[in-house]
Amino acid sequence: MQLQTASQVINFAVELEDKSAKLYEDLAEKFKQYKEVFLSFVKENKKNKLLVQRVYNEVVSDALETGFSFEDLGVDDYLIEINLAEDVSLPDVLKKALDIEAKIERFYLNAAKKSKSFLADVPRVFEKIGKKRDERKEKLKSLS
Amino acid sequence: MAVLEEPIKEPLVLKNYVDGEWIESKGELHDIVNPATCKVIARVPLSTPEEVNEAVEKAKKTYPEWRRTPPLARARCLFRLKEILEENFEEPSRIQTMEHGKTIDESRGETRRGIENVEVATGMPSLMMGYNLEDIATGIDEHLIRQPLGVFCCIAPFNFPFMVPLWFAPYAVASGNCIVVKPSPRDPISQVKLAELVDEAGFPPGVWSIVHGGGEVAQALLEHPDIKGACFVGSTPVAKEIYKKCGEVGKRVIAQGGAKNFIVVMPDANLEKTIPALMTSFFGNTGQRCLSGTNAIVVGRNDVFYKNFLEAFVDAASKIKVGYGLDESVQMGPLQSKGSKKRVLGFIEKGIKEGARIILDGRKTKITGDYPETCFLNPAVFEEVTVDMTIAKEEIFGPVANIMRAKDLDEAIRMVHTNPYGNAASIFTSNGKFAREFQYRVECGDIGINIGIAAPMAFFPFSGMKDSFFGILHGQGKEAIRFFTESKVVIQRWW
User: Fold this and answer.
1) Beta strand A73-74 with B140-148: parallel, antiparallel or unpaired?
2) Are B316 and B284 in contact (CB under 8 A)?
3) Per-residue model confidence (pLDDT) at position A64
4) Which residues on chain A are in Cβ contact (under 8 Å) with B328?
5) B121 to A96, A116, B252, B351: CA distances (angstroms)
6) Within a 10 A sphere around the Cβ of B374, how many other Cβ atoms?
7) How much is the average pLDDT of B209-229?
8) Is a pLDDT exceeding 60 seen at residue B1?
9) Which residues does A142 contact at the CB level (< 8 Å), separation at least 6?
């Protein structure tokens, strides 16, 4: 599927943050030894979601190319699946989380590139959130 | 992607908002139809002359106390309104899509630009300040005070049902006046929603009122002796008429009319960035805005550049996804009514008859989703258009693009000036000299340089010239404050 309008892209980003938050809520429940780390990710996801929604709502204008900013932004590569098997092991879960974070990072960075004609604020926020994913990936690696 | 949830589930019966109360009108009710689904979403009354009179009388009664309310306290009402609008951002946006047809991105953009006017008007305690000079003669001082005038009216158009009244109302009330808004009878629901939020913000009853109706209500407002001034946005013939009427009786007036906006594309333009901007300009809001691009002039004798431009333009236009604006993937919604579509079809036929070549025929509709074709058209593109053709001269107010050629910038500017309108014009170029020449010479109020929709922000006036504007001061920003206030000069000497 291709995303073309700003509304679609923002909602997709929000969906990724929601799913990611849900994953870490589940992990915090399942692997109590890392509860704090996972819950800090959840908090960050919520902050990211708010940031993305806010930047869109504050810069959206009917006079800008909101409907035509994201040509060729396919999302199939960025779809994530967060369900966990009942008996899943910590190493498997961390691997899955790393894959998910890598996908989300790629989405943000690619969307930032595709949204250059939209007001600069949106790609700037996307880039910031995308790059911050690196820190999260490092934290996840340190748990394994 | 799913279609977003509709905020209106059952047809509403709209009421007038007068003196802080929701009052049922005795006037005849008319259906408001969602142009995408063709379902009735509300019924709007055509208010009676007595109801108009009542609204103005109540506003007049409120005025003396509101005028005496300190500007800071008045501004606080607007701060509260701004907060409430942010909290409720999505609902009026979706309502606009339902009543007008525009896409959800466009509706949210409209909501945002409306809120920006509220934000600017919150600065009224500073913005309304006068000025003074000591010793204009020895021992004599002079100062200027800006004072409100009383009750104003706003007669709003259908194309921006939520935003346009906000070009005026926040400045009117923040400067101490009262205002009666008459929304377009074609899509008045988002104004009702706005009035609900105004009520929640705690404005005193009578400061901000809504009276529904059509031409007769507009007439009654304009003729009312207690209306000090009128703000109108709509067609040029009506704008002219209102300007004349207000002039006769000494009312202040801002009358914004129609438009026919040219977009000049120089051979050095960056096509990759220009094309998306032109898609928004020509087909955004389904071409129903007074800042829409309608005539594109490609400059130069370079046939290769012209061919590349044309191919890219038509390719992008043909890919525009048309459908219900609450479907987030949709890039262009329907026209606002069946009548609007009929009007646009008439222009397309006239274009063909007068010799323009249709290279993308928007009459062949392709709609995303299962919706009746009633109000839908796809983008249409004409080539070989000349400035004397009807489609190049008259405002179509629909998704129709005319492509023309000019040998150089001088010729392009001459072509722009053949048109009686002067709302907006844009140039796409990489050359500063071309841009400067264009900005300097073109007789239009709003100029875009590598901008497809030259929409002034709330802190700048929404300009316009020639047959696109009748009046002196424009809406928005400092000019609106001048419009809504009288300049009183005091000269004083003390012994």
Assistant:
1) unpaired
2) no
3) 67
4) 5, 7-8, 11
5) 51, 31, 20, 44
6) 15
7) 97
8) no
9) none
Q: Which two tokens stand for residue B347?
A: 């222009």
ipTM: 0.84
Q: What is the pLDDT of residue A74?
A: 87
User: Which residues of B are catalytically annotated?
Assistant: 290
Interface of chain B toward chain A, CB-CB under 8 angstroms = 1, 86, 89, 102-110, 112-113, 273, 276-277, 279-280, 284-285, 289, 291, 316, 321, 328-332, 451-455
Distance between CA atoms of residues B422 and B410, nearest Å: 17
Give this prediction's pTM.
Answer: 0.94
As given in the structure block, the two tokens for residue B169 are 């109302």
Q: What average pLDDT does this structure show over B435-440?
A: 98
Choose the mutation target among A1, A62, A76, A113 for the interface with B, i.e. most B CBs under 10 Å: A62
The nearest CA of chain A is from the CA of B225 a distance in Å of 37
B112-137 core/surface letters (b: 16 or more CB in 10 A; e: else): bbbbbbbbbbbebeebbeeeeeeeee
Mutation target among A1, A7, A54, A118 for the B interface, most CBs of B within 10 A = A7
Residues on chain B touching A6 (C-beta within 8 angstroms) = 105
Burial of B21-47, coded b for 16+ CB within 10 Å and e otherwise, reads: eebebebeebebbbbbbeeebbebbbb
List residues in chain A touching B: CB distance below 8 A: 1, 3-8, 11, 57-69, 71, 117
pLDDT at A65: 67
User: What pLDDT score was predicted for residue B35?
Assistant: 98
CA distance B193 to chain A (A): 19
So what's the pLDDT on residue A2? 84
pLDDT beneath 70, residues of chain A: 62-67, 69, 71, 116-119
pLDDT of residue A122: 87
The string of pLDDT tens digits covering residues B89-142 is 999 999 999 999 999 999 999 999 999 999 999 999 999 999 999 999 999 999
| Structure confidence at residue A119 (pLDDT) | 66
CA distance to B208, B266, B307, B426, B455, per residue, from B302 (Å)? 56, 10, 9, 21, 31
